[in-house]
Amino acid sequence: MMKPDIAVIGGGAAGLGAAMWARRYGADVVLIERDRLGGDCTWTGCVPSKAVIEYARRVHHAREVGFTEPIDTAEVLGRVTKVVHEIAGDEDAGTLGRLGITVLNGQARFVARDELDIDGTRVRPGVTIIATGSTAVVPPIAGLADAEPLTNEQIFTLERFPERLAVLGAGAIGLELGQACQRLGSDVTLLDLAPRIAIGEEPETSAALASVLRREGVGIHTGVRVDAVRTTGGDVTLYAGDTPLVTADRVLVAVGRRPVTDGLDLDRAGIDLADDGTIPVDRRMRTSIRGILAVGDVTRYPRLTHSGYRMGQIAAHTARSRLPWRFSPGTLPWAIFTDPEVGRVGMTEATAFERWGDRARVATFPMRKTDRGRVAAATDGFVKLIAAPHPVARTLLGGRIVGATVVCPSGADVIGELALAVRSRTSVARLGQTVHVYPSWSFAVWQAVGRFTGVLDGASARPARNN
Q: What pTM did the predictor assign?
């Protein structure tokens, strides 16, 4: 019987964050993984997708300046596999062992609240942290299973990308992989039930990305319900009723993810799942059962790698310290790694309007008016800042920053300072006093701030609207 201080079930980003931070507190840690250490992010998510995206970006930019060369997507996917294995080597059992973390391979099952069975090995930890992640949802569309649909878990194992690719879902995964595959030679069509792509983002974001994607040749069908898929020979046709929408060689499904809890026997620990299949937790990552915490995609919180890692840190702290750390989803930044990238944090204009009405104010600055956008010939995108009344100064000096969107080639990086601004309740005036490098992409943040204090390049901040 092993009796560690902490057992972590799941070796993805959230589990690794929990295990590594628990070791920093001096805990005796056992990490249990039934598949591969590194989880979805390393093997089928962030790492391979961003490797493909970066290669596609270089190919696209080379074409823009007149350089062309044949694209062998088999070679691209081979390079992606090499990168994945390099990064996975930083998270393997040997590396973790040198940190003092014991790794057990196998399926963890609860025998009781405080006891686990891992394929015959019994573990009785002081605290258990569940970090079993999520998997892609494949909707029950008639005929879809016969078409052998791809998800992020299969697409990077192909020898080559298909010549014609239909993508179900125009959220982050669908947009990123759709654009990358189009740039690498596939004929891509995006389909989504929502009235616009990137439905969770600002309307201006959806419009900017749709313009770029259509210009690059991506087909976009929004507001459509795919309710049948028919496979004939090598052709896969997607239908809305009797209307054919697109014919492709393969279908990539990117409509969402569901938590993975199968095989854990959570009922033996007394844990009841929420209606959406997640494990209910508070902001300190505690379940309703003493000594059991849950982190990452298996909870209701945003399914992002950095979100999971942060939850893992908080869970380890909760297990080893009486000082409370709490997860703050409202200040969590995220990105869509299209080109241009989308970075966002905090409230949208619509959610700010719901809370403060037209006392919330909005300032937008387009990249086409920035010198960096002009010299880089990358004028798609904008900076959008949402400000609300300050708790003390109210609307004097612009209020305080409560949300932001950045759409530009490095939007995922520029959003960092705005995430800090939202988290620290920074005033618009204070952000305006922070000098930004010229001519950087972040200089557009400074220019957007300038519109809160007066007219800049023909426009100023305006009251929020329920758009």
A: 0.94
